[in-house]
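Before the break, one more example. Copy the sequence into your notebook; we will annotate it together after we see the structure.
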Amino acid sequence: MSPLLLFLLAGLLLLEPQGLLTPAGRPIAQLVLALLIYGVVWIWLWDIVWQGLTRHIRVCSNRRGVHEVKEQRKRRFVSTHEPWEMPYFPSRTIKTLCIDRGNSNMQSQLRPALVSLGILTLLTGLLYPLVVTALAQVLFPWQANGSLIERNGRLAGSALIGQPFDDPKYFWGRLSATSPASYTAFNADKLTGSSGSNYGPLNPALLDAVQGRIKALHDADPTNTVRIPVDLVTASGSGLDPHISPAAAAYQVGRVARERGLSEATVRQLVAQHTEGRTLGILGEARVNVLQVNLALDKR
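Here is what the structure looks like once it is written out:
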């Protein structure tokens, strides 16, 4: 039944790009399909492994004496029983597991241990990573390869890692406390990368950073008297946040429109097009990807 379900789900996945699902529901449908296929494959592989293990672990035989279930507690044998019937579930492969305490020499224990080690190494070290990688490449190829953004055949960045912008004609992202430069995902020489400032609320260095960013925003747009959203003057915990809040984007619309000679309505429309809602409708907050909206501005 499990292979049949796997093929059915694969068929749905192949038909999905033909337009069976609406664009709004497509990410959720892909996530549900991924979870279902993942669960089926995991149960299927786990069942195969347990069938192999139980051939070596089950040491009760007619030669050593067959122990009935009711006598196992008296003799302190280990017994496992199938709690329910379910196709391709590991528990169905173990009706009764008896361990003969009289045969406890090293050789009888070494073989099951080595077989278990080999099978689990292949499962968790080779087969499982290959299955997960294959599913990721089929279901989410863009995300699995780093969410890379290309423009005119050249790599412009990643949708997951922010970039520093200080030109008034661009939207600015959040502050970054990574070293040796802002938005440094990894620096091999200094073994540094993603990090926050770790400044406490009473640390003078935090106040200096906030005041410096406020001054920079005011200098870039002196006529803007709107209160500055807090995410524009503070750094994220990772220092790599690629998003700002819709309020932070709205604060900068006037400056960007003026510097590029565009109407504010046009810039607001671009911001709306690159505003992401809550994940699955319930997780997180609405957000604007700074790199993507800036690249959209450069295309105009």
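Residues 14-22, 56-103 have pLDDT under 50 and may be disordered. The chain has nine helices and seven strands. Try to locate both features in your own notes.
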